[in-house]
Amino acid sequence: MKWLVSLVGAGLVMITLRDLFHTLWHPTRHGGLSRLVMTALWRLARRFRAPGRVVGLVGPLAMVTVVGMWALTVVLGWAIVYWPHMPGAFTFSPGSKAAQEPALLDSLYLSLVTVATLGLGDIAPDEGWLRLVSPLEALVGFALLTATVSWVLEIYPALTRRRVLAIRLALLRDADPTTPQIDGTAGALLLESLATEVARVRIDFTQYAEAYYFHDGEDHSSLAAMVGYATVLAQRGQAAERPEVRLAGALLTGALNDLAAILDQRFLHTGGPPTAVFAAYAADHGRDGAQP
Q1: Residues near 42 by Cβ (< 8 Å), separated by ≥ 6?
Q2: Rounded distance between C-alpha atoms, residue 58 and residue 39, angstroms
Q3: One of this protein's Pfam families, by short name (predicted)?
Q4: Cα separation of 221 and 199, whole Å?
Q5: How confident is the model at residue 83 (pLDDT cuts 50, 70, 90)?
Q6: Which of 67, 72, 248, 276 is deepest in the core (most CB within 10 A)?
Q7: Would you kindly state where each structural domain of the chain is located, as residue ranges?
Q8: What is the 3-state secondary structure (H, E, C) of the chain?
Q9: Worst-scoring range by mean pLDDT, 23-32, 67-76, 77-86, 210-219?
Q10: What are the distances in angstroms from CA 24 to CA 58, 86, 215?
Q11: pLDDT band at 31 (very low <50, low <70, confident <90, very high)
């Protein structure tokens, strides 16, 4: 029975590590804890029509919630591993009152101390297999901390790339170049560079799906509001006379179609054409979408 309880705790730890792995290093559209938490908070904020400042907190708050749940589950899982073997399989420092406490409390305490890599030493494993398991928990705690830092450092550059593209589209919308104006080498380079940036954002939505649930602030920095104008530029490029401009317009159209497919597959589920997907994307982020 003791081993069965310990296996339950080990299973809880493995579930957490699997979720962490699929969130950071092998993202899938099947989601996990992070996707469930972020989707729930996002839908809740949109359903009650929370103001922009509140919606802007959804992404960071969801990340903090997910990391907290990861840490809590790891600590609880390892405490369950220790619990059936407490106190007989452990050595307590002289004068310590820890052995007088309930076994579950001592197990939680030991798990917290170990996962935080504090190494206080007042409770130490005595059996051989536990002496191997405890350092492993410390390694998992270190990996969790490293993964959290890595997650933050990966998400925010992705947000920056998305917002830079939105601002660039906003500036182009204000200038509103016509088909004759982009029918040249400069126009071809412009459309090709936009296609490259759209492709980068598409990859970001694949690799860092949680970035979708971050609010972009004002319209000029919101891709949800500005992506519609990119389709206008692509159409004008394809209507140009120069073949290199038409090619660049076709590249931008292809990149936008690919982006729409990812947005629809992972987040929106409209089943419609790219224009409908971008309209749903704008609506989901509280935007109207840029019009020609």
Answers
A1: 58, 62, 213
A2: 9
A3: Ion_trans_2
A4: 18
A5: very high
A6: 248
A7: 2-147, 155-284
A8: CHHHHHHHHHHHHHHHHHHHHHHHCCCCCCCCHHHHHHHHHHHHHHHCCCCHHHHHCHHHHHHHHHHHHHHHHHHHHHHHHHHHHCCCCEEECCCCCHHHCCHHHHHHHHHHHHHCCCCCCCEEECCHHHHHHHHHHHHHHHHHHHHHHHHHHHHHHHHHHHHHHHHHHHHHHHHCCCHHHHCCHHHHHHHHHHHHHHHHHHHHHHHCHHHHHCCCCCHHHCHHHHHHHHHHHHHHHHCCCCHHHHHHHHHHHHHHHHHHHHHHHHHHCCCCCHHHHHHHHHHHCCCCCCCC
A9: 23-32
A10: 19, 34, 21
A11: low
Tokens 């982009």 map to which residue?
182
What mean pLDDT comes out for the span 234-253? 96
Residue with tokens 């319209």: 219
